[in-house]
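User: Can you predict the 3D structure for this chain?
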Amino acid sequence: MRWCLLACLLARLEIINESEQHAGHAGVAGANGRAGSTGETHFKVEVVSEGFAGMNTVKRHRMIYQ
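Assistant: Here is the predicted structure, written as structure tokens:
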């Protein structure tokens, strides 16, 4: 239900692949060797929505992760 409300008021959704910036990290090496792995391990997601109006950062994060 919350996602529906957020999607209706969504102003912007941006997903940025930052995996290249983490290429030398130990966890990345293991992920790249797995079957079916694309090597994409780190993403930055920016969500802008009127549904977040009046919420502090913690409440916005909880809404996204629930």
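The mean pLDDT is 76. Strands lie at 10-17, 43-49.
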